[in-house]
Every structure is written in structure tokens, then in C-alpha cells.
């Protein structure tokens, strides 16, 4: 029996050009701005844009964790031009057994009903879709699974909801 793995996917459409959204969303300095303050996120020596192979070191001092956490992720699969852009960060050291986070940015309009499922409907405005896909696993199989059910899943959903709200605040709606 292998370790349980989980996934989380979110998306938000913002009414701003992909160049502007990419510059903001791919800059590690903005991670603290879009993460709830209770996590105490700080990126050590951030570079302005992701480059494949770069190591990103995040220091977290979440409320209730006295010593804090150090999280190291390696950047992969950067596409920084065009109508579809992306980068992937894969945790090398940190609180998860597995963490693979795909950051996707796609030029496109919001449909009349606010869902890309209705993509064949004439867009009412041009903008950018921001999508996150995370695959993750927790350490300590049984305890990790219990922790996921009780706390971790809800905490991640709240964190990504907060991110969507911050992007909407940043780029207007």
C-alpha cells in the first residue's frame, strides 16, 4: 500500500493582460502578498522571475509553530512568453512528502457565465486565466491521511481561495 496522494486545482480569471499577470504571479516576492498572513511567508533572496533549475527557499513562521518551517522548491518547465505560460515548483525539502505545484497562466476571455467550460460563448472581456494544480502527499501515511482529512485539505483550500481573492484585488474585477 503506497502513500496517499492528493490533488487540488483552482482557477480565477482576472481582467488584465497576461504580461502584467505573469510578471506579478511568477515573481516570488509576491508570494507573501497572496498568502494569508498567518503563515508568515518570506522568500529568501528572490529573483524577479522563475528560471528552470532555480532553487526557491521559503521561510514560514505559521501561527502556532514556534520554530517555523523551511521549504525548498526547485523550479521546472518555465514557459515565460506567449499566450500560455507556466512554471512548476517541486519541493525538495519541506513539510510535505510530495509537493508539485503547476502555475499556469493563459490569455483568454471570461465567458458570459464566468466559466471556461462555456469557452465557445463569445467572451465579454479579454484577460488572463490563472490556474494552480497541486499534487501532494503528507508524511506519516496513517497520521498524514488523518491530518489531511481534519486540517490540511481545508487549510490548502483556504490558502488558494485567499490567493484568488488577492489576485482579483490586484487586477480589479
Please, could you describe this protein's structure?
With 173 residues, this protein is α+β, with helices and mostly antiparallel strands. It has a single domain (5-171), classed as Alpha-D-Glucose-1,6-Bisphosphate, Chain A, domain 4 (2-Layer Sandwich). It is built from three helices and seven strands. Strands 1-7-6-5-4-3-2 form a seven-stranded antiparallel sheet, with helices on one face. Strand 3 (55-60) and strand 4 form a beta hairpin. The radius of gyration is 17 Å and the shape is globular. The protein starts with a strand and ends with a helix. The mean pLDDT is 85.
Quick description:
The protein is of the alpha+beta class.
Q: Quick one: overall form?
A: globular
Q: Which range best describes the helical content: under 10%, 10-25%, 25-40%, 40-55%, 55-70% or over 70%?
A: 10-25%
Unreliable segments of 5+ consecutive residues: none
Number of domains: 1
CATH third-tier fold name: Alpha-D-Glucose-1,6-Bisphosphate, Chain A, domain 4
Spatial ordering of strands, largest sheet: 1-7-6-5-4-3-2
Termini separation (Å)?
46 Å
Q: Which terms would index this structure?
A:
173 residues; alpha+beta; Alpha-D-Glucose-1,6-Bisphosphate, Chain A, domain 4; 7-stranded antiparallel beta sheet; 3 helices; 25% helix; globular
